[in-house]
Amino acid sequence: MAALPPLLARRVRRAAEGARRWKLRSTGVLRGVVPRLRRPAGASRHIIVIGAGLSGLCAAYLLQQASQRVTVLEARNRAGGRILTLRDRFADGLYADAGAGRIADIHHRTLAWIEQFGLTLEPMYPDVGRLIGERNGRPVTGRDAACLSSHDIHHILMSLTPWDAQSSELRAARTLARNSLIKPIWYRIRGGMDLLPRAFADRLDGAIRYGAAATAIRRDADGIEVTFHESQAEHSLRGDFVVCAVPYTTLRSIRVSPALPDDKVRIIQECRYESATRVFLQLRDRGWLAPDWSGYGVTPDKWEIWQPSFTANTQRSLLVVYMQGEAAEPFPALAPEARISKVMARLDTLFPGVRERCEAAVQLCWDEETWSLGAQHIGELPLDVAVRPEGRLHFAGSHTSASGWMDGALESAQRVAADVLADRPA
Fold it and tell me: How far apart are CA 83 and CA 90, in angstroms?
């Protein structure tokens, strides 16, 4: 079957995606995904959750719904952890996700909680305009996004599918129809991805203490105590259980006594986190885009190029460059201004006029974020060790789930909440 012209291809893609959405909805895959945990017999217990990232927030919410007393200690002055949406640096209501930015329709827990809180999804990738690549320092155009499934675009941008595949195996109309029907569709939350953690935080009704950095956990037969710094003073809080929902990079700086078992200490110390940097440019108009360009693309050294303002009702635009893994490793050594300059110089070659149109430039390097020191963890961990409670100390976070993404954080939260409710110390 030959390739379709973009207008007809767009109709085929949208029809196939509509059929996929209908199939997923009609089979009830989200039904029962959000748990309803019962209050255990006996008096309400006090659970201290360390970390107000997505896993900590979800665990705290579920425990509170089960009539438990919950206190969340968060070192930052905001909720969300590695989910962060930037707004106040941009004009005309533009916003950009600096952390978690994508949701696949196979991430059923994420979709279920989005539905639970009445949030709205929108496409992560456009279905209009050509993808943009680079060869010998000059822009090259790929296929129109209409002729590629959401899955195909995702894999091209993440360099999981070679750039040249657009002109070979992905050309067939039957491939577009098949992949749009059977492969994941990628979304984002309209208004910003941080609306999901904010929905949890809003419902925790004052249970979160911001600017409270845990420094020590002490376990004994009668309970568990957390020491933390807040308002330039040291405080302590005693509870029945602790849920540790921070990355291992943060847990390494928290003293735990008695000491954790050797196998747990080993994975905490040896686990590596991926480097990630994003640079955001607010441009005064969209004149930098050729008429048939989408604003999305990838370079040979795996810089992802996004134009997330494609759904915005303004002449201004946002151009985002996302580097992760090896592509991001040179950036922590650069000063913030140098990171922006490096990206700006390259983009101005690819898209002449970007520099003169730029009204604001923002960068974020996750390697430098004190309470993260990196993005997602790298490699597989022995999950039996990662999830194993150590007495009254339980563990959550995407690093304790096989699922990854935000879905892994939510899976770990639902698991740990059920485990805590079932836990009956001797």
Answer: 18
- For 83-93, what is the mean pLDDT? 97
Question: What is the widest separation between alpha-carbon atoms in the chain?
Answer: 71
Per-residue pLDDT at 5: 85
- What are the start and end residues of each CATH 3.50.50.60 domain in the chain? 51-83+194-271+379-422
**Rounded to whole angstroms, how far apart are CA atoms 189 and 199?**
12
6-15, 26-35, 236-245 — most confident range:
236-245
Distance CA 174, CA 226 (A): 58
Mean pLDDT of the chain: 94
Pick from 84, 94, 128, 87: nearest CA to 283? 94
Neighbour count for residue 336 (Cβ, 10 Å): 16
List every span in the chain annotated with CATH 3.90.660.10.
Answer: 275-375
Query: Where in 231-292 does DSSP place strands (E)?
Result: 233-239, 241-244, 255-257, 272-273, 276-283
Which positions ≥6 away from 117 have C-beta within 8 Å? 195, 196, 199
